[in-house]
Design brief:
about 325 residues, alpha/beta, Rossmann fold, 2 domains, 6-stranded parallel beta sheet, 4-stranded parallel beta sheet, 14 helices
């Protein structure tokens, strides 16, 4: 079996949402791969330092360096680690993330070329990123979707008499949590008994703003903070609709998980979302920040008797292809 050094933000112990480094890393370990990790340091400077040191330490001991690659400051982690890998002569594999990465590779084309054109292969977890990179001249590409363990997402029977809305994401401006509360305020005009639960860790001041906004508008919203996967799956049994309000996106795991749980999804149609979701087929879609549109689509799930059941069924069929038991064959073939 191959051995790997996995570079990424391993920060769940600090209250952040688990990312690919923690989920995919564990999946690969379970298949018999040896996986080393960097980094779990909360401070960005020390995290970068540990990533560099670990790359020096393990470059001659591993077969590949896998690098979670994003569009914001983490892009520079990927740049420096990838160039160090080139100097040390170790194969590296960027795993692409983030709805805004296509604009990043245009804005910083010189640095992007140094990372991605010299990679052993670039892994695109969505056709959205695959097509964006292909369009920009990158040919060393492979599509391997984000993955879940389908068996841990029990599908409970839902009733659609009152909207019981679930939102699961980090509280950050990019994910537009205030939109969820604005939609909820509209929903309660027609369904006074409607509920909204918002699950996720604080990433910027969006969490405090959301609480203040709910209080100012006199609506009762359940804010749980960060929950473990097991805990939020348990909470989801009490809800019947999932909303995704983000400004930018790729193929969010939280949406895939909601689909696996049998929750019909209403989402903004941004970034990679239209590559995952089809309006009126396996989800309901609205434009970015379209509060009235999302209100209308949530109401439809309650008012149109068969719609919610049909969308939930189609969504479950869609996510069957994201199960680790299906996806792992592609990773094993790649890493042999």
């Amino acid at each position: 079996m191959s051995s790997l050094l996995y570079i990424g933000n391993k920060l769940s112990d600090h209250g952040y949402t688990s990312t690919s480094i923690e989920t995919l890393g564990l999946f690969l370990e379970a298949e018999g791969y040896t996986v080393y990790y960097a980094s779990s340091k909360k401070n960005k400077f020390f995290r970068m330092l540990e990533m560099l040191l670990m790359t020096f330490k393990y470059a001659k001991k591993v077969d590949y360096v896998l690098i979670d690659t994003y569009s914001t400051i983490n892009f520079w982690y990927a740049f420096f680690i990838s160039q160090l890998c080139r100097i040390l002569g170790v194969k590296y594999i960027p795993k692409l993330h983030g709805g805004d990465l296509p604009s990043r590779i245009v804005r910083t084309k010189f640095f992007s070329n140094l990372i991605f054109k010299n990679a052993y292969i670039n892994i695109a977890p969505s056709f959205y990123l695959y097509e964006a990179f292909k369009k920009n001249g990158y040919t060393n590409l492979k599509y391997i979707p984000n993955t879940i363990e389908l068996q841990i997402y029990p599908q409970s029977t839902k009733e659609f008499k009152v909207p019981k809305i679930l939102w699961v994401r980090s509280f950050a401006k990019i994910y537009n949590p205030l939109m969820a509360i604005m939609v909820f305020i509209n929903i309660k005009k027609k369904f006074p008994e409607a509920q909204l639960c918002m699950i996720g860790p604080k990433k910027d001041d969006s969490y405090e703003k959301a609480i203040r906004f709910a209080q100012k508008n006199n609506v009762e919203v359940t804010f749980t903070g960060k929950l473990s996967k097991e805990d939020w799956i348990a909470v989801s049994k009490d809800y019947n609709i999932f909303i995704n309000t983000t400004h930018f996106d790729n193929t969010p795991i939280s949406v895939i998980e909601a689909m696996a749980l049998g929750l019909p999804v209403v989402s903004t149609n941004v970034g990679g979302i239209p590559f995952l979701l089809e309006h009126n087929v396996n989800a309901l879609l609205v434009s970015d920040n379209d509060i009235e549109g999302m209100t209308l689509q949530v109401n439809r799930l309650i008012e149109e008797a068969d719609l919610a059941a049909t969308i939930a069924k189609n969504a479950k069929e869609t996510v069957a292809g994201f199960d680790w038991e299906v996806v792992k064959k592609q990773w094993i073939d790649l890493l042999q």
